[in-house]
Structures are given as structure tokens and as C-alpha cells.
Amino acid sequence: MTGVIDKKPEVLIVDGNPENLSAVQEILRGLDVEFARAMSGQEAFGLVSEHDYAAAVISAELPDMDGLKVVEWLGKGERNRFLPVILVCKRDGKRKAVRAMKKGAYDFMAWPTTAEMLRGKIRFLVELYMQRKAAEKHVLKLSESMNKLSKSHVSLQIQTNALEAVDDAIMITDHRGVIVWVNAAFERLTGYEPGEVIGSTPRILQSGQHDARFYSHMWQTIRSGKVWRHEMVDRRKNGSFFTMETAISPICDGRGEISHFVSVTHDLTERKQLEKAREEAIAARTQFIAMASHEVRTPLTAIKEGIRLVLTEATGPLNDDQKELLEIARRNSERLSRLINDLLDFQKLKSGKMEFDMHQNNINEVVLEIAETMMPLVNEKGLHLVTDLDTTAPIVAFDKDRIQQVLTNVISNGIKFTKEGSVTIRTSCRDNTVQVSVQDTGPGIRGEDLPKLFHEFEQLAAPNGSKMGGSGLGLAISRQIMKKHNAKIWAESKLGKGTVVHFVLPIRERRRKLREE
Fold first, then answer.
1. Is 125 in contact with 84 (CB distance < 8 Å)?
2. CA distances, 376 to each of 225, 382, 468, 505 (Å)
3. Where in the chain is the domain with CATH 3.30.565.10?
4. How many CB atoms lie within 10 A of CB 75?
5. What would the CATH number be for the domain defined by 273-351?
6. I want to staple 89 with a disulfide (CB 3.0 to 4.6 A). Which of 93, 326, 379, 424 is the partner?
7. Which residues pair with 492 in a beta bridge?
8. Pick from 456, 366, 466: which is nearest to 411 by CA?
9. Domain 359-516 has CATH 3.30.565.10
10. Measured between alpha carbons, how far is 89 from 105 in angstroms, rounded to an integer?
11. CATH code of the domain made up of 147-267
12. Chain region(s) in the chain for CATH 3.40.50.2300
């Protein structure tokens, strides 16, 4: 569809939390779109009044109004009446989501959401937008041609041949809605030959899935001289249904009165099927990971226990070579066990099935506990582990087990990549948050690799080009955990200067949220 529209389609993101705005934009990065951002309902109203967006992702909770009001307002406005809106709710906001759908929202999603699903939905809506723009452009050209019909029979023949060659189904009716012409694509799409429909009305295609109000609005729009566009379901001659994107444009005669209507229809059946297949594939992959991980875990537990018994000489004495081989087997079984646990955790986070137990905790105590468990690994590599803790850090609400998991992932990464020197853990208070920073004296990370650091299954290469091992899920899981805490995690690094990973936990916001819940 390159070249159909003059500029890239725009996606509007509305959320009062800048971090959520950035998170949604990060998920959608890679799509060939521009982004507009608004942090309130009023700001969103101003933007949609002046711009044509391909889609909008709107938070159900805005600082100045309920997201439902934005959806309702869009439904009343003529310019953006059919702007597809995806309402983003809390996982417990199902009722609000249902109300949003009744008020005209295209879809709803729970936040945090599955990145693949959100990207897929926006990609689909952008494609529809581009198809719609192409159809409108085509209808405009067609309208200009229709106004010149009386001037030249040759011109009429040329236009007719051109319309016959178009892949989209085109139907022309008179001002009463009686069909006067259809192209070859119409016959291919509906199964009706021209002689079967010319002289009748488009009611022959009605599927029964749209009410009288739907068609009333269509006629009101086109009789007022405006273009009507909508996604709808019609029925073929053989009785089967098909989903389509339709644009209907009025054609005026020399006196400015409507003489004809031109309908351009693009079949969406295949795209709908592909979208459904993509969602099913994602679900199947998720299910497979969970099933495979569980199936491997049971025999692995028995293997680990067997190795432990033999290695502790409970079954008899071992020589040095046997101990060395068993120790290698033990380390690899532990590595496989960590990989399985990472896969299961990642699957639970992606599917929203991981539960979080929020309680008031002391972050400094958690840091000291994790630091103590890391000492054997630090001593083994001959490093120094330093803790620099802000004693004024307040008690904040978080899931202790999950934050321990984040700290373990980040600190163990720092130890793994550091050959000499130290790993320092700091806590501090800033901007109404408690910040935890883990700094190492390792080789650092190339600037082009930093954006990949928190992506799943990414293994960054060491400066010498070698892979450092691991599942590539630890930091991806950490990022998902921080999102569940309405917090963020990020890294700073310079090649040869080490790396520092920061994460923050909100103070007053989290307490307020707990009281409201």
C-alpha cells in the first residue's frame, strides 16, 4: 500500500502515566506508523478534533476523566465517529470494558498486555486505515469521472474498463439506491451476476447482522453529501457471510444534486482469518511452552536428586574423576532447572496468570538478604560485593519474592559479566520513588545493544564477540515484574566502563492504590 496516502498513519496513545505511554509506544515500535501522545481526556479531545488517526489506545483511567467518556465523545463526533479505539483497563476492569464496547470501542485489553497481541491488533487497524484511505481516494477519482460521463462516450468506456480491472467490488446505484452497475470483482465477491442485481437494491446482500439503526445512519450520512465508511458483514448468493470494509460516496450532477452513489468494498475475510490464526498460534505457543516445561521438570527433579545422592557418596565412595563429571552434570541440571523456571515465569507473566502479593516491605533488608545469598558466587570469582544503602528509605509496598527475583537476576548478571573489580548495590530516594541501582565494573554494553537488554530470548555478546550463555529471559522477566509494580527498570552503560541497572518502586502512588483497592 506504499504511496496510497501522503504520510504515515498515526496512532494516538492516551494515558496519564508517562511510563505507560512510553511502554505502549515501545510495544508498537517497528510498525510503520507515527505516534501522538496525550496525558488527559481534554488533550485527547483537542488532538482528535484536528487529526485523522488510524487507531487510538486509551487508558480507562485518566487524570481528568474516565476513559469511557473519551470513547463516548468520539462516538458522538462526526469527524472521528469511526476511529477504532482500544480501551486499556486493569485486569479487574471487565465491566468497564464491556461498557466501553457498548459505547463504540473497537476492543479492550487488560494492562499490562501481551505485546504480540497489541501489535497484531494495531497492525490490523492500520492496514484497514490504509485500505480505507485507498478506497476513499479511489472513490474520489471515481466521483470526478462520473461527473464527466455526459461529456464523452470514449471517456466513459475507459473508466468502465478501469473499474472492471479493480480488485475491490464496486457498485453504483441511482439516488434511490437502485443498482445500475457492478464490476467483475462484485460478481467474484458476492456470487451474483450483474443481471441478477441490476434493478434491485443492495438489500439483496443484507446478512441480518446489522439493525435498522445501522442502515439509517448510513443513509443519513450519504444523503447529506458525506462519505460513509464502515466494516460490515454481508451475505453471498450461496448464503455464506463475508466481512468487508465499505466506503459509499455520493455523486452530484451539474446542479449539485445527488444523482448516484458509488460503493467500494474490500473483502476482509482472509485478513480476519489470518488475524484469528495468528492469535491462535500465539496461544498455542504459550500453551506448548507451559506444557513442555512441566513435562521436563518432573524427570529433571529425579535426575537432580540422583546426582546429589551419588555426589554426596550416599551410594558409595567416588574417585576424583567421577566427582568432577558429576559436578559438571549437577551444574548443567541446575542450569536447565533455571531455564525451565524462567520459561514458566515468563509464560505466567505474559498470560497474566502470575499472582502478586503486595505488602509493606523494607527494600534495604531485601537487598541485604540477596547480597548474602550472592556471596559464594562473588567469592568464587574473587570480586567485591558492596552495599551502599540509604537508611532514610521508607517502607513501601511490593511483592517481596518478585523483587528478590529481580535483584537476583540483575546482580547475578553483573557478577557473570565482571571478571575483576566489584558489584555495588545502592538504594536511594528520589522523585517520590525508592531507586535501586546495581553497578558492575564489567566490560560494558555497546550502545546499539542496550535496547535489546530487556527483550526476551536476547543474549548479548561480550566485547570479544562470544555469547555469555543463559536463557535470555532473566531481564525480560524482571521488566514484566516491574510493570506489575507500576514501576520501571532500565540500564546505562558505556563500553569498557561497566554497566548500571536501575529500577524504581513508587512510594505514595502505590500506597494510594492499595487503599483504593
1. yes
2. 77, 10, 20, 28
3. 359-516
4. 15
5. 1.10.287.130
6. 93
7. 500
8. 366
9. yes
10. 12
11. 3.30.450.20
12. 10-130
Going residue by residue through the chain (517 aa), what tens digit of pLDDT does each one get? 344 456 789 999 999 999 889 988 888 888 888 999 999 989 988 888 888 888 889 888 889 888 888 888 877 766 666 788 888 887 666 677 777 777 777 888 877 777 888 888 888 888 888 888 887 788 777 777 666 655 544 444 555 555 555 678 888 999 999 999 888 888 888 999 989 999 999 999 999 999 999 999 999 999 999 999 888 899 999 999 988 888 899 988 888 899 999 988 888 877 777 777 777 766 666 666 666 666 666 676 677 677 777 777 777 888 888 877 877 777 666 666 666 666 666 666 666 667 788 889 999 999 999 899 889 888 988 999 999 999 988 999 998 888 988 898 899 888 988 989 999 999 999 878 899 999 999 888 887 778 778 776 555 555 555 454 445 677 888 888 888 888 889 999 888 889 999 999 988 644 444 333 3
Give me 59's grid cell. 487508558
Out of 3.40.350.10, 3.40.50.2300, 3.40.50.10610, 3.40.190.10, select the CATH number for domain 10-130.
3.40.50.2300
Burial of 379 (0-12, 13-18, 19+ CB in 10 A): exposed
Task: Give the Cα separation of 505 and 400 in Å (integer).
Answer: 12
Q: Which residues contact 124 (CB under 8 A, 6 or more apart)?
A: 271, 275
Instruction: Look at the pTM and tell me if it is higher than 0.85.
Output: no
- The CA distance from 93 to 494, in Å, is 42
Please state, in angstroms and as integers, the Cα–Cα distance from residue 137 to each residue in 52, 216, 481, 490, 496, following that order. Answer: 15, 25, 46, 44, 55
Other residues' Cβ atoms within 10 Å of the Cβ of residue 416? 15
Residue limits of CATH 1.10.287.130 in the chain: 273-351
What are the backbone angles phi and psi of residue 245, rounded to the nearest 5°? -105, 120
